[in-house]
Amino acid sequence: MDSTRSPNDVQMDSAPPSEPTENEPKYGGYSRFELELEALANPYYLNHLASQKLLNEPAFVAYLNYLQYWKRPPYLKYLTYPGPTLKHLELLQQEKFRQDIISPELVQLLVTEGVKASVDWHKEG
């Protein structure tokens, strides 16, 4: 996300973003749709957010609640890693998880679970 725009700038009462178009504004070369797409699938990113104390900020917690639109069609079909993304989004709604994700042990557990889920999903496909 570019330095002039942050999750705090998103209107929480606004509708979810539309699917990307050619003329859509870009932030650091990416559309809002792309920026919000799957950052939550990365446990290291979640740990980074916790280390910056963003997960304690009421505006950021409201942003995490806003991102729940990814659970619904048509957005769900765009998730490359729906399992980890949606699981982390759900966990981030809980204050305890937002505090605990600072732990390297929890980050590693989430990474291991994500890799295992990905391998299992590819075996089934």
Automatic annotation (TrEMBL):
Component of the Mediator complex, a coactivator involved in the regulated transcription of nearly all RNA polymerase II-dependent genes. Mediator functions as a bridge to convey information from gene-specific regulatory proteins to the basal RNA polymerase II transcription machinery. Mediator is recruited to promoters by direct interactions with regulatory proteins and serves as a scaffold for the assembly of a functional preinitiation complex with RNA polymerase II and the general transcription factors. The lineage of its organism: Eukaryota, Fungi, Dikarya, Ascomycota, Pezizomycotina. This is Mediator of RNA polymerase II transcription subunit 31. Belongs to the Mediator complex subunit 31 family. It comes from Monosporascus ibericus. Residues 1-11 have a biased composition (Polar residues). The keyword ATP-binding does not apply. Residues 1-28 are annotated as: Disordered. The keyword Transcription regulation applies. One of its GO terms (cellular component) is mediator complex. InterPro entries: Med31_sf, Mediator_Med31. It is found in: Nucleus.
